[in-house]
Design goal:
Helix content is 60%, strand content 5%. The protein is built from 5 helices and 2 strands, in the order E-E-H-H-H-H-H. Helix 3 packs across helix 4. It is elongated and about 70 Å long.
């Protein structure tokens, strides 16, 4: 991009400094470049559709807590994933127990069942 000097007949070519923002703009698919742009956290951008009432509620929450919309949605997704992670753990434990049940001696299985039945939960 030429810069005009006092003498309009001469131009000086300006060089663009390689800032992280310019690098990210020049390399949009490079995730490492995206994290250089100084957001509140290195992140992945995505688009989702939400019902209007959910969007309005999230907007009110963001304003009330003085947080960005991205922070509110990230916190909500993080909480949702954390709540559902125990399901994955439970499924893995059940799978292991299922494998062990097939290997148990009938006497050990019966003794274990009696202990469980007599225990207060």
């Amino acid at each position: 991009m030429p810069l005009q000097t006092a003498d309009a007949s001469r131009s000086i070519w300006a060089t663009r400094a390689p800032t992280p923002q310019r690098f990210a703009a020049d390399h949009p698919g490079d995730l490492s470049a995206r994290s250089l742009t100084g957001g509140y956290t290195p992140s992945m951008k995505t688009a989702v559709s939400v019902p209007d009432d959910v969007f309005q509620s999230a907007e009110r929450l963001a304003r009330r807590e003085r947080r960005s919309r991205s922070e509110v949605y990230s916190a909500a997704i993080r909480e949702y994933v954390a709540r559902h992670a125990p399901d994955e753990v439970t499924e893995a434990i059940n799978e292991v127990i299922g494998d062990l049940d097939a290997q148990l001696d009938p006497f050990v299985r019966a003794a274990g069942d009696r202990v469980i039945e007599s225990s207060e939960w």
